[in-house]
Amino acid sequence: MTDITITDKPELHRYEATIGGELAGYCEYNLLSNAIMFTHTEVLADHEGQGVGSAIARHVLDEARAKGQQVIPVCQFIAGWLRKHPEYVDIVQPASRRAFNI
Fold first, then answer.
1. Which residues of 35-61 are buried (b: 16+ CB within 10 A; e: fewer)?
2. What's this model's pTM, rounded to 2 decimal places?
3. Any idea where the N-acetyltransferase domain is (predicted)?
4. Which of 33, 47, 80, 82 has the fewest CB atoms within 10 Å, i.e. the most exposed one?
5. Greatest CA span in the chain, whole angstroms?
């Protein structure tokens, strides 16, 4: 298993995933008054197929849950990941569950 480190970079409005100190992927977000909106997730080509995207999704959703934030998954990757992991549906904003078929 690849050692993936995920760090919040609030000044950039994104979480960054690194492997061995090298940027492997990121998830952009916007903080709203009552939720966190995930807008785009990208895994860099050299790191595709290494579980980076899933590690990012799990991390950002676990952190949102720990902070008591509701989630709006505008990002298609995060929305798709949520469809496969119903244990996270409780933190998805109710209107977003319908809008993104979660």
1. bbbbeebbbeeebeebbbbebbbebbb
2. 0.93
3. 7-93
4. 33
5. 39
Q: How many domains does the chain have?
A: 1
**Residue 17: exposure state from Cβ atoms within 10 A (0-12, 13-18, ≥19):** buried
Domain holding 71, by residue range, is 4-99
Residue type, 58: R
How far apart CA 80 and CA 5 sit, in angstroms, is: 22
Strands 35-43 and 70-73: parallel
pLDDT tens-digit readout, 29-87: 999 998 999 999 999 999 999 999 999 999 999 999 999 999 999 999 999 999 999 99
Q: Which two tokens stand for residue 6?
A: 């995920």
The secondary structure of residue 62, as a DSSP letter, is H
Report the side by side order of strands in the sheet with 4-9. 4-9, 14-19, 22-31, 35-43, 70-73
CATH of residue 83's domain is: 3.40.630.30
Q: Which amino acid is at 31?
A: L
